[in-house]
Amino acid sequence: MEDKDNTFVNGNNQNPSEKKPGRTSLLDSGEDFEMLEDVDDGVDDDLPPLEDVGGKKKQSSQEEIAKAEAVTDPSPSLPREEWLDVLGNGQLRKKVLEVGSGPDSRPQRGQTVTINLKTTLTDGTTVEEESNISFTLGDGDVIQALDLTVQLMEMGEKALVEAGAKYAYGALGSSTPAVPPDADLIMEVQLLSAADGPDLELLSPSERISLASKKRERGNVHYQRGDYAFAVNSYGIALQITEASSRVDISPQEEEELLDVKVKCLNNMAAAQLKLDHYEAALRSCVSVLAHQPDNIKALFRQGKVLALQGEYADAIRILKRALKLEPSNKTIHAELSKLVKKHSEQKGAEQAMYKKMLGNPPDINTIQKPQYRKSSWGLSWKWLFGATAVAIGGVALSVVIAARN
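Structure tokens predicted for peptidylprolyl isomerase:
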């Protein structure tokens, strides 16, 4: 189950023109630092840095899932040779070849399903032919065409599925299996079984670590393909596995390994959330990482980047200085920090100019000269006052003299 699942579900699917990331520094990605985490199993070693991957945001992915769920309501079995337009856009069609056990036998999201699969290109070229492929339905473990159509199949049913490139391997194509860019696929699918997913509380620590790692790796594949919403979904499922309560004893070493997977999921989730412009969510992911590992440079860098995007330059500079102190030779942090310091300086200059404009730009008090007419007026007032006083005193003296004579 696991070996065949890994071949199909976690295929490399990378663009051949992209370069492998270096290992000289924790942050030295040559891009914007959004790289995959290093892992011991070598799965991520051949994957390019996350920021190297192109593609537009695909926020409509959740809408497409919602459309698919809308057509999964129980309905009578379709007669043979009748095509079902799964999403109503002609890009994903399903036709029953062999009827199954009835609508009540359809699998549910979250169940582990097993299928036989034969995939060909529209020209008849066989892409792959595998038996007993297992995956969790609705978790995004496989291409959308399979995840959506298997939900509509009955137990034992064999169906033919026509999938547009959008719901297969898209504009990038795939290296494993070998699918060219923008290729439509024809798939012959047979649903063999469906069973409830494992009880996370009863899984051994090693099983939980393995399962969470697979979900995280699938999230990395989605990220590389530009399917950021699906990447967030896969990372979220992996986090649920790492955080689930357990009735099984766990050793300190296993607990540390589980925490390591959790931190990697949170870091990569923050990268995907940044791509979707979900800044508050990305900030929460970074804070969660730092709660476990206060000196995690990747989380510090992303936290600083989110704060900068929100215009909080002072806080962003403080965070990046802390990251630079942990790794002084890192060029990526140096470049980002220099850019933010310049922006912060420009912001302060603009604020000062605005304040001066609001206050009317009052002149310097040292440059103010008193008008001459005020001085003259003041001098004349004193002269008049002194003259009037002298006249009054003289009048009083004259009155005294006249009174004395009388």
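The CA atoms of residues 304 and 316 lie 4 Å apart.
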